[in-house]
Amino acid sequence: MSENSIENLDKSKLDHPNKKWLLTGMVVAAVLVAMGTFVFSESIETLDVKAEELGFEGFSLLPAPFPEYAIPGLEDPLVNFLLGFVSVLLVLIVAFGVYKILSSSHNLKGVSTS
Amino acid sequence: MHIPDGFLSLPIIVITYVFAISVLAISFRKVKGNVDDRLVPLMALLTALFFAVQMVNYPIIGGTTAHLLGAPALGILLGPWLGSISMAIILVLQCFLFADGGVTALGANILNMAIIGVMVPYAVYLLVSKKGGRGAVSFGIFFGAFLGDVLGAVAAGLELGLSAPIFQYGVSIAVPAMGIHHSVIGLAEGFVTLVVVYSTIKIRPSILTLNRGLSVLIPSAGGVMNE
């Protein structure tokens, strides 16, 4: 076993996530959403440009509730920011649920996920 | 890089869906029962943060914009199987809630971003970091992230090009257009992935227990080994 192996980690020195850390993460997420809403919101990707050259646009087969990350008819940057942040919370909850289903126990196994 | 509805031909839709579902099924089987319960909040938070990262569209070449994928960082930190599941969660929610990526192109988008975008960086990182030393590890992270972005885009170009005449540009135009553009994005992705991976290991060394591929980064966490 090499010196830098997972088995040699001192488990007592590993800091596990707590509420304060989650809160910090959410503040970072809010900053990112604010940047994406108020400053860097315009999206013109290569794919859009090439499609435009060909004279057609992509469409959405299923109607999404919040196309372009906005509430239809309420296209205000502040509303978009709130929608973006609520979406981040939704992703957090969904991801938490999926990982919870996949998780085993409270044993720190040193794991075989790779 | 999100492909909307109406760009892909039926055979490409079917092939990419079958491939994406198969790989995700393998990913679920690989990780089921092997995830430390205490790391669930951290993994969920990383997934949410990279969803937020994708909302930031920064300007690049030719008046176009780009956003970071986050897939390479998820792949290296969570491992290839959990990383692909994490990215797929983001893509599915983007598709059904925000019409960011079409439902017919969801298989292709998962293949490009959640499979190629996650697994290529992880494989490159593992391969290069075997050389040992912090320089090799850092280069592995940077180059892996760069290559993951570029190859994901090349795959998207290939899917679009092979969908001709629906998408009228063939492979010879679609692949270079996507590849060249994303090689610029890949440089930013590589740099950000380096910062994110080292910062996460430093702040939350518990993530080191998540996959064996992170063992080369143990010295970066500092003071977490048995005395």
TrEMBL record, chain A:
<feature type="transmembrane region" description="Helical">
    <location>
        <begin position="21"/>
        <end position="40"/>
    </location>
</feature>
<feature type="transmembrane region" description="Helical">
    <location>
        <begin position="78"/>
        <end position="99"/>
    </location>
</feature>
<keyword id="KW-1133">Transmembrane helix</keyword>
<keyword id="KW-0472">Membrane</keyword>
<keyword id="KW-0812">Transmembrane</keyword>
<protein>
    <recommendedName>
        <fullName>PDGLE domain-containing protein</fullName>
    </recommendedName>
</protein>
Automatic annotation (TrEMBL), chain B:
<keyword id="KW-0472">Membrane</keyword>
<feature type="transmembrane region" description="Helical">
    <location>
        <begin position="135"/>
        <end position="158"/>
    </location>
</feature>
<dbReference type="GO" id="GO:0005886">
    <property type="term" value="C:plasma membrane"/>
</dbReference>
<dbReference type="Pfam" id="PF01891">
    <property type="entry name" value="CbiM"/>
</dbReference>
<dbReference type="GO" id="GO:0000041">
    <property type="term" value="P:transition metal ion transport"/>
</dbReference>
<feature type="transmembrane region" description="Helical">
    <location>
        <begin position="73"/>
        <end position="99"/>
    </location>
</feature>
<dbReference type="InterPro" id="IPR002751">
    <property type="entry name" value="CbiM/NikMN"/>
</dbReference>
<keyword id="KW-1003">Cell membrane</keyword>
<keyword id="KW-0813">Transport</keyword>
<protein>
    <submittedName>
        <fullName>Substrate-specific component NikM of nickel ECF transporter</fullName>
    </submittedName>
</protein>
<keyword id="KW-1133">Transmembrane helix</keyword>
<feature type="transmembrane region" description="Helical">
    <location>
        <begin position="40"/>
        <end position="61"/>
    </location>
</feature>
<keyword id="KW-0812">Transmembrane</keyword>
<feature type="transmembrane region" description="Helical">
    <location>
        <begin position="105"/>
        <end position="128"/>
    </location>
</feature>
<feature type="transmembrane region" description="Helical">
    <location>
        <begin position="178"/>
        <end position="201"/>
    </location>
</feature>
<feature type="transmembrane region" description="Helical">
    <location>
        <begin position="7"/>
        <end position="28"/>
    </location>
</feature>
